[in-house]
Design a protein that fits this description.
single chain; 110 residues; mainly alpha; 4 helices; 73% helix; elongated
């Protein structure tokens, strides 16, 4: 129960961070949705933005570890994996290759 509350709080912080950046959660399309050129371009842009954010979180986590701030490093690593997953999913949507359940369950690639 504590873990579920922590996950909800973490998701809330991530959404607040996205809103502060002028971005927000994307709507979930139906499975037979046709991705047009404009939407594919925006999905690619958002995917690249998420990949860049993951890289920034990685360097921030490393800096936090160097300063012996392990709690911040842990949060940055959580955020990094979230952004990596988001990037992978958005880029797959942009290419029109929807993720299978096995691909969603796979760990994020560095």
């Amino acid at each position: 129960m504590v873990l579920a509350a922590f996950c909800r709080a973490h998701a809330s912080r991530l959404l607040a961070r996205l809103a502060a950046l002028g971005r927000g959660p994307l709507p979930v399309p139906s499975e037979d949705f046709e991705v047009g050129d404009d939407l594919a371009l925006e999905l690619r842009r958002e995917g690249v933005f998420a990949r860049t954010a993951a890289t920034r979180y990685e360097s921030t986590a490393e800096m936090a570890r160097q300063h012996a701030d392990l709690s911040s490093a842990w949060v940055c690593e959580l955020n990094r994996t979230e952004e990596q997953d988001r990037s992978r999913e958005l880029l797959a949507l942009a290419e029109g290759t929807f993720l299978s359940l096995d691909a969603v369950a796979a760990p994020a690639e560095p």
